[in-house]
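URGENT: need a sanity check before tomorrow's submission.

F., can you look over the SDR family oxidoreductase record below? I want to be sure the sequence and structure line up before it goes out.
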Amino acid sequence: MSGTLLSLGHGYSASALSRNLLPQGWTILGTTRSADKAEQIRATGVQPVLWDEQSLSKALEQCTHLLISAGPDDQGDPALRLLHDQIAARAPDLHWAGYLSTTGVYGDHHGAWIDEATPLTPSTSRGAARVQAEAAWGAIAHLPLHVFRLAGIYGPGRGPFSKVRNGTARRIVKPGQVFSRIHVDDIAQVLEASIKAPNPGAVYNLCDDDPAPPQDVIAHAAQLLGLPVPPEIPFEQADLSAMARSFYSESKRVSNARIKDELGVTLLYPDYRAGLAALLHAESA
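Structure tokens as predicted:
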């Protein structure tokens, strides 16, 4: 199976999916707002598409599959603002569409387990914007939409090792705080599995098996590097930006049972220990 995937907002997660699909004969069209970034995208085997209405409309006419990674801004969803009517007209001919959202749409659950049936009660403006964007995409008739709610993303270039090495990693402790995470390669394999077994209207949580306190991840990274574990800093004493502080306003354990039961996914990195070990091994290699 192959086709042409238009990647709206071709970033970290979409690039990982492209690495899976390109060897299978797929054509990937990846959007960018920068001519310099276009050449970087082209070097990966993806065909760059500049973010303007004419270029995007032409790409939309070519694609069989649509991935939306571009997040909402102050005016709402940027792709729908520019292309709503063209996407609506093209929707019946698309085989699959995927929207990358966030588990932030669920809000705070004080460490309790949640799943895809949990009501959406976002506690941040970012989470609320994602709820609105999910609904806007879902309102397009005949669009074979799948929503993927992503936990905290890590992977090559996005691990804790650099901060541990340079001494800027902080182990901020808020009692009862846990976060769910997902390795970017597991995001890619879930998206690929969904593309091969479409179920329009489905919502999937993308996270690993082990929601964990953030200070434990930093400690484990330090231990893997053979470096001193940074001291704990009580949350109340931590000098955090408003953005960073907002992440600590939510604590929940996110179930990933649906990606396993419906898509048959076996996670490559079922917990942060496996993921960090693989990142360090890749660095060494």
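My own read: Residues 4-155+180-208+255-269 form a domain with the Rossmann fold fold (CATH 3.40.50.720). The chain has a mean pLDDT of 96. If you see anything odd, call me.
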